[in-house]
Specification:
The complex is a heterodimer of chains A (125) and B (225).
Chain A: H1 2-44, H2 48-69, H3 75-93, H4 98-117, H5 121-124
Helix pairs in contact in A: 1-2, 1-4, 2-3, 3-4
Chain B: H1 2-22, H2 32-50, H3 57-79, H4 81-88, E1 92-96, E2 99-100, H5 102-107, H6 112-121, E3 130-135, E4 141-145, E5 168-172, E6 175-176, H7 178-184, H8 187-198, E7 205-210, E8 216-220
Antiparallel strand pairs in B: 1-2, 1-3, 3-4, 5-6, 5-7, 7-8
Helix pairs in contact in B: 1-2, 1-3, 2-3, 3-4
The chains are: A mainly alpha (125), B alpha+beta (225).
């Protein structure tokens, strides 16, 4: 009976951790998406300096978040986003045409990260 | 490298915990589901060690989940006979009155060689000596021999005697084992008497075992340790 109780506790703990981790990941990804959209809008509006500073903050934010996310998501997935974000700042500074494409790419990567970790039937199977 | 080392320590503790949670069973006594879980756990445990990109938690969660499900299912099987049948199967009588049930043999995909080998493992070399042989859910063969082939017992020979518990360890490596002394019901007085008789201190005793009748075996330390 003790083993049964321990097992139930462990399963409950796993479920709780899993749900919390998913909530945290969802919140982080949503936040990232909205921040990226904002930065993209700044670039479109020609607010270059403002966008640069914003992207730097965004990079720092992702640094902190990815450390937490890496506890339960494969490192490769967060690394790709990190690399794309680090490309954005120089692109914006150089007024590179690829900046917008890179923005779209990062936003898509963040959305994919969120989607791939959500326990949909498709992801489970 | 240090990451692998620390991960190894964590997984070692986890696997030990998992095995303890599953309970005490020998490899040969594992139920089919337990065997599958054991193999799965050992495979999953290696994944976060091989690939450092994989978070440790993705190794920990399946191990804990599988073991916990196994414990919960075995608890449920204990409560429900039909579930027990589904999970573990049922024992099958393979030899009845010295005759092999060939259909059961086919169903279990047991060859005659397998059967003979298992019988030899039970010290039986002639099928006609077998009254009943049952293949247990673990795959082990249990044999009930014919009356004429069974070993003679004390009751067959009408030898009187009382059943006593096997000897318990009273002193191990110079340290008193209170539980053993209590189990035999001999008490500290008896121990003092024995030690005085033998002229040894408790620290000089390597092993002292005794049964409830006071029958004992004392081995002194050889002085090299």
């Amino acid at each position: 009976m003790t083993r049964f109780k321990i097992s139930l506790c462990v399963i409950t703990a796993i479920l709780a951790i899993g749900i919390l981790a998913n909530i945290m990941l969802d919140a982080s990804c949503d936040m990232m998406t909205s921040k990226l959209e904002e930065a993209r809008q700044m670039v479109t509006d020609g607010k270059k300096e403002e966008a640069e500073a914003y992207l730097e903050d965004l990079g720092n934010y992702w640094d902190k978040r990815s450390k937490l996310i890496n506890l339960f998501v494969k490192n490769d997935k967060t690394k790709d986003i990190h690399i794309s974000i680090s490309k954005l700042e120089p692109y914006v500074m150089a007024e590179n045409d690829e900046a917008d494409a890179e923005f779209v790419c990062v936003i898509e990567l963040v959305k994919l990260l969120k989607e791939n970790e959500t326990p949909f039937i498709g992801n489970i199977l | 490298m240090l990451i692998t080392f620390f991960r190894s320590i964590i997984l070692y503790i986890l696997v030990i915990f998992s095995v303890r949670l599953m309970g005490k069973r020998q490899i040969g006594e594992l139920q089919p589901s337990e065997l599958v879980i054991t193999i799965l756990v050992s495979n999953i445990a290696t994944l976060p060690l091989e690939d450092l990109n994989i978070p440790l938690i993705t190794g920990i969660i399946p191990i804990l989940s599988l073991v916990c499900f196994e414990v919960i299912m075995s608890w449920a099987a204990l409560k429900s006979k039909s579930l027990r049948k589904v999970i573990s199967g049922t024992p099958k009588i393979i030899i009845r009155d010295g005759v092999i049930d060939q259909q059961v043999l086919k169903d279990l995909r047991f060859s005659v060689d397998d059967l003979m080998s298992s019988l030899r493992g039970c010290n039986i070399f002639n099928i006609s000596d077998v009254q009943f042989a049952i293949v247990e859910t673990t795959g082990k063969l249990s044999v009930y021999e014919r009356y004429s082939s069974r070993n003679v017992t004390n009751s067959d020979l009408d030898i009187k005697g009382s059943s006593i518990n096997p000897p318990d360890i009273i002193v191990s490596d110079g340290v008193l084992v209170e539980r053993g002394l209590k189990a035999t019901g001999l008490g500290a007085g008896w121990l003092r008497k024995i030690l005085t008789e033998k002229g040894v201190k408790i620290e000089e005793v390597f092993l002292l075992t005794a049964d409830s009748t006071g029958e004992y075996n004392l081995i002194k330390k050889d002085g090299r340790g």
